[in-house]
Amino acid sequence: MRDPITVRQMNAADELRRAHRKLGDQGYWVVSRICGEGYSLNEVARPGSSKRAKLAAANDLRAHLDTLAAMWNLATRR
Asked: Highest taxon of the source (predicted)?
């Protein structure tokens, strides 16, 4: 009988928990919707949001992705 949860799956769950702690609830929600579930930035931003609000959401997403890249040692120097 196969083990229901593999070591690799447990490690992935640990990494997701680390990411959640690092990004916070809102940051994790945004990143998981866009990167994990395929939502667009316009779908994640509140409907009817101003252009400024959408730009702010894009900047927040970029910052969250930079945080994850640094956490996983994938960041490049600027």
From this structure: Bacteria
